[in-house]
Amino acid sequence: MTEAVQTDVIIVGAGPIGLFAVFELGLYDMKCDLIDILDRVGGQCAELYPEKPIYDIPAVPVCTGTELIDRLMEQIKPFSPTFHLGQMAQKLEKTAEGKWRMTTDAGTVLEAPVVVLAAGGGSFVPKKMPLKGIEDYEGKSVLYAVRKMDELRGKKIVISGGGDSALDWAINLQPVAEHVTLIHRRDEFRAAPDSVSKMRALVEQGAMDLVIGAITGLEGADGQIAGVTIKEADKEVRQVPCDAMLAFYGLTMKLGPVADFGIAFEGELVPVDTATFETNLEGVFAIGDINTYPGKMKLILSGFHEAALMAKKAFTYVHPDRRYRFQYTTSSSNLHDKLGKED
């Protein structure tokens, strides 16, 4: 059995609510490990609305989703959280010692007295390629995420997609792969302009290929892809050899394995006690869009409030031998020390 990493709080979801929970928990000496299926922090703010203006963050008249996440990351620096990105929380069970053991689909095992679900409407999962027989290759040589870049070293790689993930990985894998071919159905991209410029520069240098067209079939056997069939715009069908294919077609949201953790659900939402935001399981909390209660409003600022009350109850599980003492960050020298501020 894989040795479990010991921590105080396991947070499922590294969006704005999960990040602010790190701050509230950190003020009271609780170390956090965060799990997120995305390969970057930020949740919906970073993945779906990075440039969307947000107007209802207190004392911040306007900021983008990216700016909000950047500020939250700066705020939690003093507490040094550990992130387990590109992983899905897959299994939750109670240990003989009374802790919660969380296992991810990447084999990471965490143990803590407290679990916090801050996964919004569920986990983002990749949209699958609509190709006949692709399931024979998925998870082997057709991948929807890169877990270990070194496993792709020296391989001929086809990357399909036109967003940030597709272009970022095309650029990052180019130095380590034998060859990279980026395939997109049109010569316009949804990625950051800087990434598009870098990709086109590599193509002009002959360091990688760009093919405008659609993948219509796969070649290979026993889970190992050997090539893809492409119908290029206004051209004949042709083959592109490859050892691995990465498909980045966007994300969809599903509850995923969280629905099987033994937590009570109402539809696809988790009912909670509004005094603590605890679920039906002791030591397991739900904050943000994943929970439900009378008067619930799906706002980021509501999630921040929920994180503060959750942290107060979580303290009793993590530090059962200590008395919770409410303190103001404006006046507590103890909290100033934790935040690295001088009185």
Structure write-up:
By secondary structure, the chain is α/β, with parallel strands linked by helices. The protein has two domains: 5-125 and 252-339, FAD/NAD(P)-binding domain (3-Layer(bba) Sandwich), CATH 3.50.50.60; 128-249, 3-Layer(bba) Sandwich (FAD/NAD(P)-binding domain), CATH 3.50.50.60. Helices cover 22% and strands 28% of the residues. It is built from seven helices and 22 strands. The chain has a seven-stranded mixed β-sheet. The protein has a five-stranded parallel β-sheet with strand order 6-3-2-10-21, covered by helices on one side. Strands 1-9-8-7 form a four-stranded mixed β-sheet, with no helix packed on it. Helix 1 packs parallel to helix 6 (300-318) and helix 4 (164-173) packs across helix 5 (193-204). The longest helix is centred in the last third of the chain and has 19 residues, at 300-318. It is elongated, with a radius of gyration of 22 Å. The N and C termini lie far apart (48 Å). The mean pLDDT is 90.
